[in-house]
Design a protein that fits this description.
- The protein has 363 residues and is an alpha/beta fold.
- It is built from 14 helices and eight strands.
- The chain has a four-stranded parallel beta sheet, sandwiched between helices.
Length: 363
């Protein structure tokens, strides 16, 4: 495994003042459409969640667990409180900088020319900007980045451990990319005794989908396109879900189902004619598409419909949301008629996926 870059200790002093979304505070105070700031560089929630002073110690501990797991070919390891932890997600938190020169050693993408995510994301931002499409980039943080206490034997800490993600988001913001850092809001959810990620599944929970949808909607409602929208009301129904997630099948030990509270959005459905496109990996599909995605009408797309007051168009892929989802959007001409877009994918994709290619949004 590659050691952390020598610059890592410097990141401990990195301020999160400019690393969150302006919508976090607005969503918490319940501001309505049109009242949100358009800025994507300030977040009251992020300002209160600095990097952990002992993050390097925590990361070194996680690296040892990953080395041991990979040596025996394990895809998961047991976490605290019967949680199942995905090894490649743990690995993603132990690399050095994964952009620029660091990409070649940090990324596990098979093609060297596709290891650096920075230029492809910035190019995509510029293409959407040129097309007049307001958009939000939503990386989903790792389960143990949101709740570091789930790592067995790890040192206690209060701040953030996703050091490279934080630094990368700042690199993107310097290029104008509207990054929505949802980790502070998800950490707050956990602090209230709720789950942000499933115990046995590699995805977030319905409650996390609800919280993030409110943050995304708050940001999009502040854009000019939304002034012409007459939002509809979408009622919700409370339900207790019983699920056995995708990581249960990766274990040799029996895994009990888990219970998850969810709000089902009545009347929510995919609408190809919507002015809003939600695209990315299976985080766009879980609790939305049913079947192996566990439930319907309780996912990010459904709660985005509720929060925006309009149906959304959904393009999620089972697998990598980095390049394949953008290729599908291009081939399907999915940006035609769109006024806003949300690109949502797991943050582990920065280092653990198949790589990042530059993809146009239209011919």
């Amino acid at each position: 495994m590659k050691p952390l870059a020598s610059s890592l200790p410097l990141l401990l002093a990195f301020s999160l003042t400019s690393c969150g979304s302006s919508s976090a505070g607005d969503a918490a105070t319940g501001k309505g459409p049109g009242n949100e700031s358009k800025s994507t560089t300030q977040s009251p929630a992020a300002q209160t969640l600095p990097l952990a002073a002992n993050a390097t110690q925590w990361i070194e501990h996680v690296r040892k667990l990953v080395d041991e797991a990979e040596a025996r070919g394990a895809a998961t390891i047991p976490g605290v409180a019967d949680d199942v932890l995905l090894v490649k997600e743990l690995h993603s938190l132990t690399t050095g900088p994964f952009w620029g020169e660091g990409a070649q050693t940090a990324s596990r993408a098979p093609k060297p020319e596709r290891r650096d995510p920075l230029a492809p994301i910035v190019a995509y931002h510029r293409a959407l900007q040129a097309a007049g499409i307001a958009w939000v980039f939503v990386p989903v943080p790792a389960k143990v980045a949101v709740d570091p206490s789930l790592v067995p034997g790890a040192p206690a800490l209060d701040g953030r451990v996703d050091l490279q993600d934080v630094a990368f988001y700042e690199q993107l913001r310097q290029q104008g990319v509207p990054v929505l850092d949802v980790l502070p809001a998800l950490r707050a959810l956990v602090a209230r005794g709720e789950r942000a990620h499933c115990r046995t599944d590699s995805h977030w929970t319905p409650r996390a989908c609800e919280v993030v949808a409110d943050l995304v909607a708050a940001q999009l409602r502040g854009e000019a396109w939304y002034t012409g929208v007459t939002p509809a009301d979408f009622a919700t129904t409370q339900k207790q879900l019983t699920v056995t997630g995708d990581m249960a099948a990766m274990r040799s030990e029996p895994t009990a189902p888990e219970q998850l509270p969810a709000k089902l959005v009545e009347g929510a459905k995919d609408d190809p004619s919507s002015p809003v496109l939600l695209f990315g990996d299976s985080h766009c599909l879980v609790f939305h598409s049913g079947g192996d995605m566990l439930a319907e009408r309780a996912g990010l797309a459904d709660h985005l419909t509720r929060a925006l007051g309009l149906q959304v168009d959904v393009l999620g892929v089972r697998g990598s949301g980095a390049t394949p989802s953008r290729v599908d959007a291009f081939r399907g001409k999915r940006f035609e008629g769109k006024r806003a877009a949300v690109w949502c994918l797991t943050a582990r994709e920065f280092t653990e996926g198949q790589g990042w290619a530059e993809v146009p949004i239209a011919r």
